[in-house]
Amino acid sequence: MISLLLVDDHEVVRMGLRSLLEQTEDIRVAAEAGTAAEALAQARAVHPDVALLDVRLPDGDGVEVCRTLRDELPGTRVLMLTSYADDEALFSAIMAGASGYLLKQVRGRALVDAIHAVANGQSLLDPAMTQTVLERLRSPARGNDRFTELTDQERTILDLVAQGKTNREIGAQLYLSDKTVKHYVSNILGKLQVARRSEAAALWAKEQTHPGAGAAPRGGV
Description:
Elements: E1 2-7, H1 11-21, E2 27-33, H2 36-46, E3 50-54, E4 56-57, E5 60-61, H3 62-72, E6 77-82, H4 87-96, E7 100-103, H5 108-119, E8 124-125, H6 127-138, H7 152-162, H8 167-174, H9 178-192, H10 197-209
């Protein structure tokens, strides 16, 4: 039996998904959540095998929830489900440790199959997004340097992260909300292809000492 945490901020969507999943014999919806905070609380309480997680939540970024779940509950597989074919969210989710990324247009049977797949340790992407992934992997970053993908604001925030400042301190200095800073940090981690802010800070420090040293390695997945 696969225990599942269902996370979506729309109650009607959760009801539809629960109805679909309850028709299967080996998937049990152990808990539901409509916010990032609820998702983390429920995950810590029930330790689900799979978290079916919306990318966009009212109080936070689903990718950040994914990263936290993978850090705290490595036995929980995360399957992202979203209405938007967002390239940056896709790559951020992959770097955060998501096992799969599907669009909500997916058919019911395909969703059930995807849950089974990630529960068994497999990774998957929505077929509609596979070409995007392949194209990005085959195309070198501008200047073959991962830092060239950062915006000026992201560079400013990364510099503050490297100085050891918290999201709250960065927000206060740049007049941004904690949620906005978290979103920026998540994007930075995705673009730099690292999982933790400490790794991003180390790369940035190295880049400041030896410009160009942070060039992204290219090769297989």
